[in-house]
Design a protein that fits this description.
single chain, 8-stranded parallel beta barrel
Length: about 350
Amino acid sequence: MYKKIRIVLILIFISIWTCPAGMHTVIVRAATVRTKAADSAQNATEGWQWIKNSDGSYTLILQDFTLDTTDTNGIILPRDKDVSIILKGRNTITCTQTGLAENWVILFPGVEGDGSLELNAPCGLNLDNLILNSGSLVIDSENAFLGGLVTNESYIQNGGAVSVTVTGSEGLYLIGEFQLHGGTLDINAPDGIGIFTDDGSAVYNAITIDGGALSIQADRGLYRNRREQVDADITMSNADISIHSTRTAISNILGNIIIHDLTSWDVKAPQLYGGNVTLQVQPADYIRLHALLKQVNDLNEALYMSNGWNALQESMKAVKMDKHFYEQDEVDAMYTDIKAKIDALVYLSADYTGIHDAL
């Protein structure tokens, strides 16, 4: 009797997985791992393979896989399993709720490969932890409950390209931390926040960017929340940063915002920083201006006509020494103005009275 029940269950699972793409949700559950590992050759004809590795982890390979379904979810990953997702060719998942989901695990799915995965769903991806090493991830989301891409502990991108387009919610909604070390991340969330990190359940939710390229177009750019009194910073270095927001570009409810040694900076917003923050931002380069100010201090006022000297002093009073690296143009303009005023100085005519009297 037991064998008959087991055979029936296996046949049911095989019938689900071998239906044409676009008819059923692809579900990978812990109970079906042995079955699907054994049938990996058959799965490959549908564009996917589920492989158990010798270390107990699993690998999901998607190769030119297409799923177009009216079911709630696209792919559901199993509980308590480390999963590596390898992308080959172009893969597309369309469903009514979440394209790639996970049953609330604490381990890491990693995405790599030279292919792409397009997720067309209200929430494109909802995982506890995500590590992206290579490949391309494209999310087109509309009216998601939280965001187009959701993680419950961490988002770590070491390479690859991620593009998230979402209306009606946040771009990335992360309970936990965000790390960008390489690759490109492009977010278009006109109605929400580009990247939102929350410290729910007292998880660490720092925003760390030290490589790659980040581009955000959103109502607000970066936002680190602090509901559970977790202290964390927003740190940016060695990366290309572009943020265009209609309100605040970078917000930390309480903590530091640390910015230095960026490779490019294109940030436009009515308010640059928000929250109760301590700014540690790389200053502008004042070397040339300091040298010019020393030159002015060495000049002798008595040798020059008063109108030119007074104009130079007004320019000196206008000097601001608190500019940041992205305000370098203003520092350069101060230098140019003072240099022009120095060049316009006119010497007073020499006084020959004593010489004339002697003659």
